[in-house]
Amino acid sequence: MKVKPFLAVSALTAALLAPMTASADDNLLTGDVRLACEAVLCLSSGNRPSECAPSIKRYFSINHKKLSDTINARRSFLNLCPSDNAQGMPQLIDAIANGAGRCDAAALNRRGHYTGSSRDGTRRFIVNTQKPDYCKAYENHAWTRVATTKLEPIYCNYTTGDTPWRKKRVEKYQCGQKWVDVQ
């Protein structure tokens, strides 16, 4: 008989204290929501400390067959962060979703086209010298501090023909450009 009142008091105490413990945990983000908020912070900054590794890994693990589907899925992931409706946040999330991982020198140097065959029959890749609009938006957004890129000339050697009255000579000329990361 004494057990029933004890259980009733215990249940009542637990019921009264439960909101207090729950309210203390309401301020903490967990799961994908936490990773999304961390990803927004980490992808907006130029340096990425080791604390960013899980959120960055989760963000870049989102891949689909089409690039547009990948970008939309990554945008949806970033929109899990509760502050996505704050003023300027939708533009920041769009800039990150479109630009993160696609605006460094290595990615920009993959954009371009091939020209016709050269003298030895090989095709030459020409890097696109215009920075895409999504990179401009990502690098120039007021809330991002990411490494920018710039164009640098590439110099190639051209060997002139060997004739009896002239020695072989190597001349340097600008044969293209490449993107490099600016520190």
TrEMBL record:
Residues 1-24 form the signal peptide. It comes from the Bacteria. Keywords: Signal. This is TrbM.
